[in-house]
Each structure stands twice: as structure tokens, then as C-alpha cells.
UniProtKB/TrEMBL annotation:
This is Carboxypeptidase-like regulatory domain-containing protein. InterPro entries: CarboxyPept-like_regulatory (IPR008969). The keyword Signal applies. It comes from Maribacter flavus. Residues 1-20 form the signal peptide. The keyword Signal applies. Keywords: Signal.
């Protein structure tokens, strides 16, 4: 009886830990009302406070319980859905609240726009996009402002979050007429690794294009000092419209419309605004890119830019059509969304997603190939015990001397070491091993004389000898704005983030005056089933 109590006690302890992690928050999940699929990156705002969060990959979000206790309400908006409002008192403080959004797509209409008092007739898709780019200086702030938000980066494999790092940052931007990377400063208010999520030290390492230990296939990501937040901001093509950005976007101001083919899709809505949906694409022998840009019918403001680069010669592992209707494998995917506030467009969120490959050395390998002069044979030493029947199979070994095959008569094994005894008459044996010994004395490279190859041998756990593996992971960097502060300047004495140093380097931390207003929107679950 005493022993049977332990599993129950352990379960209760685990339940209390999980509850402690979520206590103090109202939790919810936003789903499509028709498909019941998660609505990813929906905006959840506190009405009248310009504060809120963005939903996670599973549609989840959390808000501090104090907003519910204060009787606040929320508005939930997402591209293509009808806005929904809830009083937080309607939501349970302890359960995960399920909220459904209904589609709000408009029919395709004639391209006639009355924008800020001007009327434009018969604009095609490319012309609409060019007008949107030309209007960036008018639609986005030219004066200083700041954004406070939740930043995170993580890997994702087998439906599980890995290496989740998260923090609260405030970005001080001098305006769209200034270069972002050189002039923008950031304060780090909170920053840590969330150890409640699985850790994978191999996936955490930096990209290395010299050793090829971690690479993005068919792409290259500049290190930018190893600072992931800086890497993310550089990939905001709208903010960096007048400087070089990623791949075929180029310099958005001059290259975007030249490099792509454009086609109008069905008009849509976001938070009551009617938007053009412009789809675009480009094809090359090795790559293709697809995307969508959403543009206001009123002032040509760009509300969202979605861009995906695909490997034209590689199909996805799941053999299903991707979101652009074909089977090619994505290399990277970037989504940037802006919202209107006080007559200007401000960043709502940016998500940069890419796949990467880890080239992992063999678990089971040959540690040493050698020549045993006393026994006049060749030896193969494994790092761990090989499977007996495979290690003793003559067909799995190939020995050459001066590029001519040496027939093996028999095999002996001593623990992890294999002795390959050649089928040679004594005279030939003395000749070969004498020449090898002479080469050793003269410090010559034995690889020019002897070649030993091993194949098809496995260890007792089933690992194939000398087999490198290349598991594929997904990498995300994301910044979700919780508050916009128009006309806000950087403090003169701010302890700003060092953009040339990784986030886990010697970075200064600051303490905001109203830090309780910002919170981590950590995913509610460690994996998505």
C-alpha cells in the first residue's frame, strides 16, 4: 500500500508545478470557426489600452489575470477574419478558453480605389504594389517611436519546441527616414532560457559554414555578431525598404516589383479595413519564391508581407501540398505584419522561420585502421562493440595495396578490434609488409599504399558504421509587439543592447518603470500534437 502511493503523489506534485506556471494568467486558444484549426498570429488586444499579445503556433495566448479582475475587454483580430470582442469576465480564470473566429473574406472587386481623396482606375496588381512601396514614407512614422514586445527564438522538431529563449525588449526607432540597423537601439528588460522546455545543445550551436556542422541548405545566414534579435530585425523588408534585404526582395524600393510576377487575389479585411490581396512569385532553376502582400484600399499602406523561399529541386518530407499549392520544400519563411495607430503604421509582429541541417558525426565508427607487423595482418578498431555476425563477415571489408585488392582469408576479433588476415603466400606477404614497414620508417603517408574500407557493419544498438546523420530542424525568431509608444525617444543614459554580441553574451539588462505591464506569452504546451 505504501509503494502504490508514490505515483499518485508524484502526479499531484507535477500538477501543482504546472498550475504554478500558469497561475496569474487567463489562457485561451483561438481557432478557425469552420476548420477548427489554430489561428496563428492572431492579435489579442486589451481594448482601450493598446496592449496585447499574438497567438502562438497552436493558436494559444495568455493575458495577466489582473486585466480580468479589472473588468477589461479584449479584441481579437486576424487577417481574413471578422473581429471579435470579449469581456475577460466571460473567460474562465482556470481553464483554457476556446475562441472561434469567423471568416470575413470579400469578393474580388474592380481595381478602382479612392485613396485619401484621389481616385485611381484600373490599377493592376503590380501597380498597386508599387504605389504601396512609394507610399511607405507617408504611411510609416518619420519621427522617433518605441515598441515594447515579447521576443523569442527557438527550434522546432517532431512537433516539439526546443531551446526556447524569451525576453521583453523595447526598441527605440528614430523613424523610417533613418537606417534601422545603424540607428535603432534596444533595451533588454527580461531575458532567459525557459528550462521548462526540452534543451538540445547540438541544435543550439551557431551556424558554421566552414565545418558545415550546422547549415541552412541552399542558403546562407550572415552571423551579424550572433545576435538573433538583430538578425530578425534586418529581415523586416518593410522597415528596411530602402536598403538591401533578403534574396529577391532585394532593395524593396527599387527591386521588389522588378523581380516578381504579381496577381490579384480575393480582397480581404483586417479589423474592419478593406485590403487588396496581391500574390506574387518568381521561378529559377534551383529556387522558387511565393508570397502575398496585403495593401490598404484607402491609403496603400502595407499591412502584411508574407514571403517563402522554396528549394525547387526538393519536395517536402510529408508529400503534401504546401500553402502555395505545390510540393517544394521551404528554405525560409518570413511574415511581417503592421497595424495602424494614430495615423501611422507600426510593427505588430515579425516571424522569421527557416530550416537547418545538423551534420552529426557517426555514433558508431572506426577509430583506427592499422597494420599489425607481428601478425602480418590489417586491423580495424571500432569505438564500441560491433554486432558479431556483421563484424565477422568478409564481404564487409575491402583492403587494397597500391590500388589492387588484397584477398582476406580469415577474420579474428578481440573485443572491439578486428584482425583481417590476408590470403597471401609467404613470399608475397613478406614483400607487401616489408614495403609498408619501409614506408613507416621513412614517415611516408600510408594512405598512398594501403586502403581499408568497411561497410554494412552495425553496433549492438543498430547504428551503421561511419554513418553521418543530418537531422533537419526548424528555427524561429519572433517579435510580438505588446505596446506602441508614438513620439518616444531613447533615453540618453540607456543600457542598450550590444548588437554585435549574442543575446547570451555580455548584454546589459535594464529595468522598466512599468515592467508589470509586459509579460512573456510563452506557448502553453511544449509540443503540438
Amino acid at each position: 500500500m505504501h509503494c502504490n502511493r508514490w505515483p499518485i503523489l508524484f502526479f499531484l506534485l507535477m500538477a501543482s508545478v504546472c498550475w504554478a506556471q500558469e497561475a496569474g494568467f487567463v489562457r485561451g486558444t483561438v481557432l478557425d470557426g469552420e476548420t477548427k484549426e489554430p489561428v496563428v498570429f492572431a492579435t489579442v488586444r486589451i481594448l482601450g489600452k493598446a496592449k496585447g499579445v499574438i497567438t502562438n503556433m497552436d493558436g494559444s495566448f495568455r493575458l495577466p489575470l489582473e486585466f480580468r479582475e479589472a473588468g477589461e475587454s479584449i479584441a481579437i483580430t486576424s487577417m481574413g477574419y471578422t473581429k471579435k470582442e470579449y469581456g475577460l469576465q466571460q473567460l474562465s480564470p482556470s481553464d483554457i478558453n476556446i475562441i472561434y473566429l469567423e471568416a470575413g473574406v470579400l469578393e474580388l472587386s474592380e481595381a478602382v480605389v479612392k485613396a485619401k481623396g484621389k481616385r485611381f482606375r484600373n490599377l493592376n496588381a503590380k501597380q498597386i504594389v508599387q504605389k504601396a512601396i512609394d507610399a511607405i514614407p507617408n504611411n510609416y512614422p518619420a519621427t522617433s517611436f518605441s515598441l515594447v514586445g515579447y521576443y523569442r527564438d527557438y527550434q522546432y522538431k517532431d512537433s516539439t519546441y526546443l531551446n526556447l529563449n524569451e525576453g521583453i525588449f523595447e526598441v527605440f526607432d528614430q523613424g523610417f527616414d533613418q537606417l534601422d540597423d545603424s540607428n535603432t537601439e534596444s533595451l533588454i528588460y527580461q531575458w532567459s532560457t525557459n528550462t521548462d522546455f526540452p534543451q538540445d545543445s547540438s541544435a543550439r550551436q551557431s551556424y558554421n559554414y566552414k565545418s558545415l556542422s550546422k547549415v541552412i541548405e541552399k542558403a546562407r545566414l550572415d552571423a551579424h555578431g550572433g545576435n538573433e534579435f538583430r538578425i530578425l530585425r534586418i529581415h523586416d523588408a518593410i522597415r528596411n525598404f530602402n536598403v538591401g534585404s533578403y534574396d529577391f526582395i532585394g532593395t524593396m524600393k527599387t527591386d521588389f516589383t522588378k523581380n516578381h510576377y504579381f496577381l490579384r487575389g480575393a480582397d480581404t479585411t483586417k479589423d474592419g479595413n478593406e485590403l487588396y490581396t496581391i500574390k506574387f512569385r518568381i521561378f529559377f532553376p534551383n529556387y522558387r519564391a511565393n508570397g502575398t502582400i496585403y495593401i490598404s484600399k484607402f491609403d496603400f499602406a502595407i499591412h502584411r508581407l508574407e514571403y517563402t523561399m522554396y528549394d525547387e529541386k526538393k519536395k517536402g518530407d510529408d508529400k503534401k501540398r504546401n500553402k502555395h499549392g505545390h510540393f517544394q520544400k521551404p528554405i525560409f519563411d518570413i511574415t511581417t505584419e503592421y497595424n495602424s495607430q494614430d495615423g501611422n503604421m507600426y510593427l505588430n509582429y515579425i516571424s522569421f522561420h527557416n530550416t537547418f541541417i545538423l551534420n552529426v558525426p557517426p555514433v558508431f565508427r572506426v577509430d583506427d585502421y592499422a597494420v599489425d607487423f607481428d601478425e602480418q595482418c590489417f586491423t580495424v578498431e571500432y569505438n564500441t562493440r560491433p554486432l558479431e555476425e556483421l563484424a565477422m563477415d568478409l564481404k564487409n571489408y575491402d583492403v587494397e595495396f597500391k590500388n589492387r585488392r588484397v584477398k582476406i582469408r580469415t577474420i579474428k576479433r578481440l573485443k572491439n578490434k578486428i584482425y583481417l588476415i590476408p590470403a597471401l603466400i609467404d613470399e608475397k606477404k613478406y614483400e607487401i609488409f616489408g614495403e609498408i614497414l619501409d614506408a613507416v620508417k621513412k614517415e611516408k603517408d600510408l594512405n598512398e599504399l594501403v586502403s581499408i574500407k568497411v561497410s554494412n557493419v552495425r553496433d549492438t544498438l543498430g547504428n551503421l558504421v561511419n554513418k553521418w546523420t543530418a537531422p533537419e530542424y526548424e528555427q524561429y525568431r519572433e517579435f510580438f509587439v505588446q505596446e506602441v509608444k508614438p513620439d518616444n525617444r531613447a533615453p540618453f543614459d540607456g543600457l542598450f543592447m550590444d548588437k554585435a554580441v549574442p543575446l547570451f553574451g555580455e548584454q546589459p539588462m535594464d529595468e522598466p518603470a512599468n515592467g508589470e505591464y509586459y509579460w512573456m506569452n510563452t506557448p502553453l504546451k511544449k509540443s503540438i500534437n
